[in-house]
Amino acid sequence: MAEKLKIKLSIADRVYPLTIDPSQEEGLRKAAKNIEQLAKKFEQNYAVRDKQDVLAMCALQFASKIEQKGIDQNEGVSEAVERLQTLDELVSSKLGMK
Questions:
Q1: Residue 29: C-alpha distances to residues 4, 60, 63, 84 (Å)
Q2: CA-CA to 59 of 20 to 30 Å: which in 31, 37, 73, 98?
Q3: Is 98 in a helix, a strand, or coil?
Q4: Nearest 5°: phi and psi at 12?
Q5: Could you give the 3-state DSSP secondary structure of residue 5?
Q6: Following CA atoms 61, 46, 49, 13 in sequence, which dihedral angle do they give, to the nearest 10 degrees?
Q7: What is the residue-level pLDDT of the chain in tens, covering all 98 positions?
Q8: How many other CB atoms are found less than 10 A from the CB of residue 31?
């Protein structure tokens, strides 16, 4: 079993000690940094003082990006399927003529 790594992440003026796999460290640190940057932006632009409100706004922002990527990906897959079906019909009709 791989060694676990103990790290501390600071988010919204709180420190969170975590025990993680070493392979997760970079992703978690980048995520914490992104949350901190977005929280600071919300605090500056919207005069929000309550950290819980700022964190809720961050969570909504990140979750909506993930959902939108899923929607965009599904639309891309649907379009690709339609094109492949059209191409299949075209090939089938050409092969049927011979």
A1: 16, 20, 18, 41
A2: 73
A3: coil
A4: 55, 50
A5: strand
A6: 50
A7: 579 999 999 999 899 999 999 999 999 999 999 999 999 999 989 888 789 999 999 999 999 999 998 888 888 888 888 888 998 888 888 888 54
A8: 14
